[in-house]
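Possible regression after last week's pipeline update?

I re-ran a chain I had predicted before the update to compare outputs. Posting the input and the new output here so someone can diff against the archived version. Not blocking, just want to make sure nothing changed silently.
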Amino acid sequence: MKVLRIILLALLVIVVVIAIGGFVIYNDTTRGPLPQHNGTISVSGLTAPVEILRDPYGVPHIYAANLSDLYFAQGYTQAQDRWWQMEFWRHIGRGAIQELTGKNDALMGTDVFIRTAGWYRAAQRDIENLQQIDPETISHLQSFTDGINAYITSRPADDLALEYRLLGITGVNITIEPWTIVDSAAWGKVMSWNLTGSYGRELIRASLFENLGEDMANDYTPPYPYGEMPTIVFPEDLPISEESLAQANALIEAARTAPPSLRVAGGLHAASTISDYGVGSNNWVATDSMTESGMPLMANDPHLGIQMPSIWYEVGLHCQPVSETCPLDVVGFTFSASPGVVIGHNARIAWAVTNVGADVQDLYRITVNPDNPLQYMYNGEWTDMTVYDETIQFGDGEPPITIQVRETVWGPIINDNDIDPDTGELLGFNNEDPLALRWVGHDASTLIKSIGMINRASNWEEFREALTYWTIPSQNFVYADVDGNIGYQTPGAIPYRAPNHDGLSPVDGSSDEFAWRGYIPFDNLPRVFNPERDYIATANQAVVPLEYYDQLADIIGEDANYLLSYDWSYGYRGARIVELMEALAPHTPETYAQIHGDNKSLAAQAIIPFLNDISFDDATVTEARDWLAAWNFQQDMDSAEAVLWNVFLYKLIDAVFADQLPEDISASDHQAFSVSVMMSEPDNVWWDDITTTDTIETRDDILRRVFEQSWADATAAYGTDRTAWRWGAVHTATFVSNPLGLSGISLIEDMVNRGPFETAGGSEIVNATGSGSDFTVDALPSMRMIVDVGNFENSRTIHTTGQSGHPFSDHYSDMTDMWRNIEYKPMLWTRQQVEAAAESTLTLTPGS
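New output (post-update):
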């Protein structure tokens, strides 16, 4: 018996030792990467001490005596909290994602395309240009880079991010390279590309025109409803005569009905290249009569693809003291890979952005020399292409591959190096129907310089001067200052084209006939200062009324095409924001929060009434129709009607378009506006279901069939008790971390992902989300900000997840519930505010 007790005791000790060892390993793996936020750290590269105070949500406020140390500490701090995100992002910019994942068929096409498109080569041009024209910006960028490298070299890889150790277990060996200034510039190219996807829409239009003809193509992508939906700049704020309206209308119509290209490139699939139209961004600003205080109030909520951690990093950068040589005193949002503040306010001004969607990409059909694939026809001569060898490495030790990228005077041949969908084989050069891409982003950009100047601007004139360097991506900037002024400015290098080149479809690239004629001068880009209505609202709708284009023709010349874009959001969000701005005035931060959280679907309001005159054989279906017709059109989380409406909408869009669309195009919820327009055309050819050869369907036939099927499908999926349905239960957001969040291993995915979370809103709603027909959210308001310019201490923000990129940090996802419930945290401003709320204080001191 005594021996048995000894054996049992020994076994217990062994189990305890194993358990303790396992806990130590687990704790070291999960908690080891968490950075030091309190105390003092000696860091080589600083010239003076820097203080970093973090608020209860982990938002850092950095206090430094000079700009070099301030940018250094920003790089250090952002690497502390978001290093893996930065690592992943720079591999996106380089087209080197498989260095982090190992060879992966699903990612091969992405890496190859990014290399072909040349994002990193373009970033190198940015840096070379800045080195020549602006050594000061390069110096600040280098300080930021030095801070990043100071942090990542202070720890072993396993203590930088959980991902290194877990990926290492799978056989992926990642070499951590020093951060470079080009890596930061490359992230600017990634974002610029994501916000300027017009070339994919060129392919769609070409396919529509070729396969369906002009009328059906225009019904599928109707022009912006000028006069029905608001523009950002109201007509009364344009100093243009009214008689120019007819001429401007003619210009837009000519662009809309221009002939298409002959074919869509075989190597590009339009459905996979087009952006999600249903998601955009909102911002608005008001002053004087429109605010309770009489001082400006500003709001912003950029709508971007769902990410884990948040795409945004919130930070305060404070010179102590503020001086001529150290002028920064700014708070707001940036990207972890970028220095400065992209959206926010300083002591004098505030600014916010949404995407313009300017057409800054064109496709050119290339004629390749049949005897030499490295030459193309240009202006009557065979011209040599520039050829780049791009080698793609794999983190799992698989042999690297090298592709060749051919570049023309227009840009790279974008449909080279396609991948065979059956074999996965790289197909090399496309000499059958090659397309070259002209993109403003390939030109040297001064974006980083612009951000630094915005951060230091103190008035409208200095703000606009800073925006002259904001070349891409073109954004809708709203502005406010402490003197009570508000304004709007479109910046960016926006081309104007030959009169026979609308930018809507690929054109012949064998000569300079279709070369861009130039860029619209900055002083002729849309702007407003202190508009008559005392407010400005942007939601990716058309920037200007039609008269603007005639004004450009008068100023620059008649012999050109000046269309800013054809691909606006159709104005549902813009119209609703304008409606609420008028209805809820005078405004406070609370009314702005109400607008942020508005879930009304104007698409539902436009389409559902057409069901009222439809007769149904089944009384239950009739009752369901009447129930839906009485809805307030708010897609709140608790809404039952929103469930049926969205089932109906997706089925309706599919029923109207899918039977007649070319195979390379699939309809999305963007076509809700197209359907709403066709509601007043009951015999439009799109209503006919061509799969029923003995019947020509009209609008009411399709509405009846689709609603009956929608009711049947909804009750089958969600139960027959419609009062128990909840939009939030089916419309959920899951924040997925790359790449481990897609590993297929539930233990790891649960460790790094968060969700699903019930979410309100929907497509083309102010509280905008994007999703597919299963309603899983894939894009959303990536942050929300309300700035009280009359009292900066009363400002507030929130973003989707949290400040930290470490899954076991308390700040990894501590904002998500607040975000989805339209709640906010304080946007701290003064040193007194920050010190009173500080959760931690870290001092960086100069080291040897």
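Follow-up from reviewer: compared with the archived run. Confidence is low (pLDDT under 50) at residues 1-11, 240-279. Marking as no regression found.
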